[in-house]
UniProtKB/TrEMBL annotation:
Residues in the signal sequence: none
Species of the source: Chitinasiproducens palmae
The name this protein goes by in its record: 2-dehydro-3-deoxy-phosphogluconate aldolase
Segments passing through the bilayer: none
A GO molecular-function annotation: 2-dehydro-3-deoxy-phosphogluconate aldolase activity
Length: 209
Protein backbone atom coordinates (compact mmCIF):
# COMPACT_ATOMS: atom_id res chain seq x y z
CA UNK A 1 0.00 0.00 0.00
CA UNK A 2 1.50 3.34 -1.07
CA UNK A 3 1.23 6.39 1.15
CA UNK A 4 -0.74 9.34 -0.14
CA UNK A 5 2.34 11.45 -0.89
CA UNK A 6 3.66 8.69 -3.15
CA UNK A 7 0.32 8.48 -4.94
CA UNK A 8 0.35 12.27 -5.45
CA UNK A 9 3.77 11.99 -7.07
CA UNK A 10 2.22 9.62 -9.63
CA UNK A 11 0.22 12.55 -11.08
CA UNK A 12 0.59 15.32 -12.03
CA UNK A 13 -3.15 14.87 -12.54
CA UNK A 14 -5.48 12.62 -10.58
CA UNK A 15 -8.56 12.10 -12.76
CA UNK A 16 -11.80 12.26 -10.79
CA UNK A 17 -13.97 9.56 -12.34
CA UNK A 18 -17.66 8.65 -12.19
CA UNK A 19 -19.11 5.92 -14.35
CA UNK A 20 -22.52 4.84 -15.55
CA UNK A 21 -21.49 1.18 -15.71
CA UNK A 22 -18.62 -1.09 -14.80
CA UNK A 23 -17.79 -1.84 -18.43
CA UNK A 24 -17.71 1.87 -19.26
CA UNK A 25 -15.42 2.48 -16.29
CA UNK A 26 -12.99 -0.25 -17.25
CA UNK A 27 -12.79 1.03 -20.84
CA UNK A 28 -12.19 4.60 -19.69
CA UNK A 29 -9.54 3.60 -17.15
CA UNK A 30 -7.70 1.57 -19.77
CA UNK A 31 -7.86 4.49 -22.23
CA UNK A 32 -6.45 6.80 -19.57
CA UNK A 33 -3.71 4.31 -18.75
CA UNK A 34 -2.79 4.05 -22.44
CA UNK A 35 -2.28 7.82 -22.36
CA UNK A 36 0.10 7.60 -19.41
CA UNK A 37 -2.25 8.16 -16.46
CA UNK A 38 -1.23 5.84 -13.63
CA UNK A 39 -3.44 7.05 -10.82
CA UNK A 40 -7.23 6.85 -10.70
CA UNK A 41 -9.76 8.32 -8.30
CA UNK A 42 -12.85 6.21 -8.93
CA UNK A 43 -15.69 7.88 -7.10
CA UNK A 44 -18.63 6.29 -5.35
CA UNK A 45 -21.01 8.83 -6.91
CA UNK A 46 -22.56 6.07 -8.98
CA UNK A 47 -23.33 2.45 -8.17
CA UNK A 48 -20.69 1.35 -10.67
CA UNK A 49 -17.79 2.75 -8.63
CA UNK A 50 -17.01 -0.26 -6.46
CA UNK A 51 -17.33 -2.63 -9.41
CA UNK A 52 -14.84 -0.60 -11.45
CA UNK A 53 -12.40 -0.56 -8.52
CA UNK A 54 -12.73 -4.34 -8.29
CA UNK A 55 -12.01 -4.79 -11.98
CA UNK A 56 -9.10 -2.30 -12.08
CA UNK A 57 -7.40 -3.25 -8.79
CA UNK A 58 -4.27 -5.15 -9.65
CA UNK A 59 -4.88 -4.75 -13.39
CA UNK A 60 -1.57 -2.89 -13.86
CA UNK A 61 1.28 -3.18 -11.41
CA UNK A 62 2.37 0.42 -11.96
CA UNK A 63 -1.08 1.94 -11.40
CA UNK A 64 -2.73 3.12 -8.20
CA UNK A 65 -6.50 2.63 -7.98
CA UNK A 66 -8.15 4.79 -5.38
CA UNK A 67 -11.67 5.51 -4.24
CA UNK A 68 -13.18 8.99 -4.28
CA UNK A 69 -16.07 10.84 -2.68
CA UNK A 70 -15.63 8.89 0.56
CA UNK A 71 -18.08 10.28 3.07
CA UNK A 72 -19.00 7.34 5.32
CA UNK A 73 -17.13 4.78 7.37
CA UNK A 74 -18.84 1.88 5.61
CA UNK A 75 -17.56 3.15 2.25
CA UNK A 76 -13.97 2.93 3.51
CA UNK A 77 -14.32 -0.75 4.30
CA UNK A 78 -16.19 -1.53 1.07
CA UNK A 79 -13.59 0.29 -1.04
CA UNK A 80 -10.71 -1.46 0.72
CA UNK A 81 -12.44 -4.82 0.17
CA UNK A 82 -12.91 -3.97 -3.51
CA UNK A 83 -9.17 -3.36 -3.81
CA UNK A 84 -8.74 0.41 -3.52
CA UNK A 85 -5.27 1.35 -2.33
CA UNK A 86 -5.99 4.96 -1.34
CA UNK A 87 -8.99 7.14 -0.64
CA UNK A 88 -10.03 10.72 -1.34
CA UNK A 89 -12.77 12.55 0.54
CA UNK A 90 -14.35 15.96 -0.08
CA UNK A 91 -14.07 16.78 3.64
CA UNK A 92 -12.86 15.26 6.91
CA UNK A 93 -14.41 14.14 10.17
CA UNK A 94 -12.85 12.23 13.06
CA UNK A 95 -15.11 9.28 12.19
CA UNK A 96 -13.97 9.22 8.56
CA UNK A 97 -10.34 9.49 9.63
CA UNK A 98 -10.80 6.56 12.03
CA UNK A 99 -12.61 4.46 9.43
CA UNK A 100 -9.91 5.03 6.81
CA UNK A 101 -7.21 4.11 9.33
CA UNK A 102 -9.14 1.00 10.44
CA UNK A 103 -9.52 -0.04 6.81
CA UNK A 104 -5.81 0.56 6.18
CA UNK A 105 -6.70 3.03 3.46
CA UNK A 106 -4.31 5.99 3.10
CA UNK A 107 -6.57 9.05 2.89
CA UNK A 108 -6.30 12.36 1.03
CA UNK A 109 -8.89 14.38 2.94
CA UNK A 110 -10.62 17.45 1.58
CA UNK A 111 -10.17 20.87 3.18
CA UNK A 112 -11.41 24.33 2.23
CA UNK A 113 -10.56 26.63 5.15
CA UNK A 114 -7.72 27.24 7.62
CA UNK A 115 -9.87 25.65 10.32
CA UNK A 116 -10.25 22.51 8.18
CA UNK A 117 -6.47 22.48 7.71
CA UNK A 118 -5.72 22.82 11.43
CA UNK A 119 -8.08 19.91 12.10
CA UNK A 120 -6.41 17.78 9.41
CA UNK A 121 -2.94 18.60 10.76
CA UNK A 122 -4.10 17.62 14.25
CA UNK A 123 -5.10 14.22 12.87
CA UNK A 124 -1.64 13.80 11.37
CA UNK A 125 -2.28 14.66 7.72
CA UNK A 126 0.53 16.33 5.75
CA UNK A 127 -1.22 16.24 2.37
CA UNK A 128 -4.79 17.31 1.63
CA UNK A 129 -7.18 17.91 -1.24
CA UNK A 130 -8.20 21.58 -1.60
CA UNK A 131 -11.83 21.35 -2.62
CA UNK A 132 -13.58 22.96 -4.40
CA UNK A 133 -10.39 24.68 -5.48
CA UNK A 134 -11.53 27.38 -7.90
CA UNK A 135 -14.79 28.37 -6.19
CA UNK A 136 -12.94 28.46 -2.85
CA UNK A 137 -10.26 30.91 -3.99
CA UNK A 138 -7.97 29.03 -6.36
CA UNK A 139 -4.36 30.09 -6.72
CA UNK A 140 -4.50 33.18 -4.42
CA UNK A 141 -5.95 31.00 -1.66
CA UNK A 142 -3.21 28.36 -2.07
CA UNK A 143 -0.58 31.11 -1.94
CA UNK A 144 -2.18 32.44 1.24
CA UNK A 145 -2.17 28.93 2.81
CA UNK A 146 1.57 28.60 2.18
CA UNK A 147 2.47 31.18 4.88
CA UNK A 148 0.85 29.52 7.92
CA UNK A 149 1.10 25.95 6.58
CA UNK A 150 4.47 25.80 4.76
CA UNK A 151 4.88 22.02 5.01
CA UNK A 152 1.44 21.04 3.78
CA UNK A 153 1.01 19.59 0.25
CA UNK A 154 -2.18 20.19 -1.68
CA UNK A 155 -4.07 18.49 -4.46
CA UNK A 156 -6.40 21.27 -5.62
CA UNK A 157 -9.51 19.89 -7.31
CA UNK A 158 -12.67 21.50 -8.62
CA UNK A 159 -12.83 23.84 -11.60
CA UNK A 160 -9.33 23.05 -12.93
CA UNK A 161 -8.67 22.11 -16.55
CA UNK A 162 -5.69 21.49 -18.81
CA UNK A 163 -5.25 25.24 -19.39
CA UNK A 164 -5.23 26.26 -15.74
CA UNK A 165 -3.47 23.18 -14.33
CA UNK A 166 0.12 24.42 -15.04
CA UNK A 167 -0.41 27.54 -12.92
CA UNK A 168 -1.57 25.38 -10.01
CA UNK A 169 1.25 22.87 -10.51
CA UNK A 170 3.80 25.70 -10.44
CA UNK A 171 2.96 26.52 -6.82
CA UNK A 172 5.44 25.20 -4.24
CA UNK A 173 2.69 23.69 -2.08
CA UNK A 174 0.89 21.87 -4.92
CA UNK A 175 1.98 18.27 -5.54
CA UNK A 176 -0.69 17.40 -8.11
CA UNK A 177 -4.13 18.51 -9.25
CA UNK A 178 -7.40 16.65 -9.60
CA UNK A 179 -10.15 17.04 -12.14
CA UNK A 180 -12.77 15.49 -14.33
CA UNK A 181 -11.73 17.16 -17.58
CA UNK A 182 -10.01 14.01 -18.86
CA UNK A 183 -13.35 12.29 -19.28
CA UNK A 184 -15.78 14.63 -21.06
CA UNK A 185 -19.32 13.27 -20.92
CA UNK A 186 -19.71 13.49 -24.72
CA UNK A 187 -16.54 11.46 -25.36
CA UNK A 188 -17.57 8.80 -22.86
CA UNK A 189 -21.10 8.61 -24.30
CA UNK A 190 -19.62 8.22 -27.81
CA UNK A 191 -17.16 5.61 -26.49
CA UNK A 192 -14.41 7.77 -27.99
CA UNK A 193 -11.59 6.15 -26.06
CA UNK A 194 -8.98 7.68 -28.36
CA UNK A 195 -10.00 11.16 -27.31
CA UNK A 196 -9.69 10.13 -23.69
CA UNK A 197 -6.23 8.71 -24.36
CA UNK A 198 -5.23 12.01 -26.00
CA UNK A 199 -6.50 14.00 -23.00
CA UNK A 200 -4.58 11.64 -20.72
CA UNK A 201 -1.40 12.16 -22.74
CA UNK A 202 -1.74 15.93 -22.41
CA UNK A 203 -2.36 15.63 -18.67
CA UNK A 204 0.54 13.23 -18.09
CA UNK A 205 2.86 15.64 -19.91
CA UNK A 206 1.97 18.68 -17.79
CA UNK A 207 5.04 20.18 -16.13
CA UNK A 208 5.30 20.24 -12.36
CA UNK A 209 6.66 23.26 -10.53
C1 LIG B 1 -14.25 16.56 -7.43
O1 LIG B 1 -15.08 15.88 -6.93
O2 LIG B 1 -13.09 16.54 -7.03
C2 LIG B 1 -14.71 17.51 -8.47
O3 LIG B 1 -16.04 17.29 -8.79
C3 LIG B 1 -13.92 17.55 -9.70
O4 LIG B 1 -14.10 18.81 -10.12
P1 LIG B 1 -14.19 19.19 -11.67
O5 LIG B 1 -15.33 18.38 -12.21
O6 LIG B 1 -14.48 20.67 -11.67
O7 LIG B 1 -12.88 18.84 -12.28
Amino acid sequence: MKDVQTVMQMGPVIPVLAFASVDEGVSVCKALYDGGVKVFEITLRTDAGLGVIERMAGWAADAAVGVGTLVTSAQCRAARDAGATFGVSPGLTAALDAAARDAGLPLLPGVMTPTDIVAALALGYRAVKFFPAVPAGGIPMLKAFHGPFPDLSFCPTGGIDVASAPDFLALPNVACVGGSWLTPKAAVAARDWRQITRLAQAAAALPRG
